[in-house]
Amino acid sequence: MKQRKIPMRKCILSNEMKPKQEMVRVVKNKEGEIFADATGKQNGRGAYVSMDLEIVNKAREKKKLEQYFEADTETLNPVYDEIIRLIYRKMIPKR
């Protein structure tokens, strides 16, 4: 049987290539709303972030998402919180 190709994406925070399943997608839609996309299928300009708390916390300090999406900190603080929540949700094993 032919082995399936694993889709790879580049993290905008660490510049590492990782499998898409190990990333969280952050989206900016046409209305200018920025949010973490748990499904990975929302419309809009997307960027991928590694599911690593250390990387996300360093990015928050250096305001990496603010630079990438050209937005203010007040808009993106809830996005950082949502990314961290999604990381914790994926870390907890399903029963």
Automatic annotation (TrEMBL):
Pfam family, one: YlxR
SUPFAM superfamilies xref list: YlxR-like (SSF64376)
InterPro entries per record: YlxR, YlxR-like_sf, YlxR_dom
UniProt name for this protein: YlxR family protein
Superkingdom of the source species: Bacteria
CDD domains associated with the record: YlxR
Lineage, opening ranks: Bacteria, Bacillati, Bacillota, Bacilli, Bacillales
Residue ranges constituting the YlxR domain according to the UniProt record: 9-84
